[in-house]
Amino acid sequence: MRGYTIRKLLEIPEYKITDVEREKEQLQIWLVPYQRKRAVCSGCGKIHTQGYHSSKESIAEDLPMGERRVYLHVEKRRYRCPQDGRIYTEQIDWISKYARVTKRYAKQMNRLTAITTNQEAGWYLGIDDETVYRVDKAHLEELAKDRLNPPPAAVDISVDEVSYRKYHRYLTNVIDTQRRLIIWNEKGRKTEVLDQYYQKIGDENCKKIETVALDGARTYISSTSKYAVNALIVLDRFHATQKANQAIDRVRKDELDKARLNKDEELVSLSNCRQRFILLKRKSRLTQKQMQILDRLCALNEPIYKAMLLKEHFLQVYECANEQEAKEHLAQWIEEAFDSSLEAFAELAQSVLNKAQYILNWFKKRISSAISEGFNNKIKRLKRMAYGYRDIEYFKLKIHQHCGLLNPRIAT
């Protein structure tokens, strides 16, 4: 009865239990098949009928029963593969290929690593984090073959990069803005990198892309213009605001350096990094105290006052009623920025002049790539949790696990 009950709990077809050893914290179970199937080579993946070499017992850990860890002892055959002449062990369909665990145990481990670190998952399961890494990576690779190869196509996408290592090491992410999921990523941020995505989804799917939201990077614009010929390229409100904030922060830093040289303590205290967020916020969102600080700062320093006015005036373009009004507003702002004698805003004005149409496209379809920055924050948190990733391919899979189609919470 004991063997029959355990066999029912295991739910492994075509195998029967020959022996069971119950220990304090473990359950050892020996299995043999009712009838031998043809062996599937773990090397080439094909069925072998000749070249039998030997057999050996393999142990695979399964889901626990009660509080006991379960180990399944299964005899596996070994064959000499005619493809390369090497000896391979047969592959059993319910055991993970490159790990001594069952596929359902690997799935359970994958669900656990989706909510915590490999180290914590290993502690919980009672195994070392290196084993968790190998099992989790193999499971994610199997899922990726089905869900990410070829990459999913989308109608509205957002393209952005995120840093995965210091010294300007970047990943390019493509996001389906309708499903709010990362659907593709690759190392680098050059034109050739994004070209890979468009090439993989094919010409027909490229023609179906309607909008592409991006941060204005020339490499992404070049690639998108070449492949997504029907797409509307949009430099959205989020990234336009981000660029304006970067310009005003450059002015703040320059004036802070001058104030320190001139030993102007009041200006230093009002323009240091602790007060920078006052300049980055919209005036309408400032508290009364923050407004007083801003008024005093603008009264003390004319360049910062000019920069604040230019930033506010630039962002008003998105409050225009239509594209024509926005076009006139941008032309006026560009002229003001060039006349301001502020280098940071003169450079921003030149960039806006070159990419004005992409900003105006926002009035045709108000798509945002702010979701990209949200995912970037999740990716950075993932990287911090793991204290970095040495294996970039594993890191790409983990991004899909947390932000894309490999997430176990998503029904595909």
Quick overview of this protein structure:
The chain has 412 residues and is of the alpha/beta class.
Account of the 3D structure:
The protein folds into three domains: 2-95, no CATH class; 156-235 and 371-379, Nucleotidyltransferase, domain 5, CATH 3.30.420.10; 237-363. Helix 2 (103-113) packs across helix 4, helix 3 (118-125) packs across helix 4 and helix 15 crosses helix 16 (392-403). The model has no long low-confidence stretch (mean pLDDT 88). 49% of the residues lie in helices and 20% in strands. Strand 3 and strand 4 (47-48) form a beta hairpin. The chain has 412 residues and is α/β, with parallel strands linked by helices. The strands form three sheets. Strands 1, 2, 5, 6 and 7 form a five-stranded mixed β-sheet that branches. It has a five-stranded mixed β-sheet with strand order 10-9-8-11-12, sandwiched between helices. A two-stranded antiparallel ribbon has the order 3-4. The radius of gyration is 29 Å and the shape is elongated.
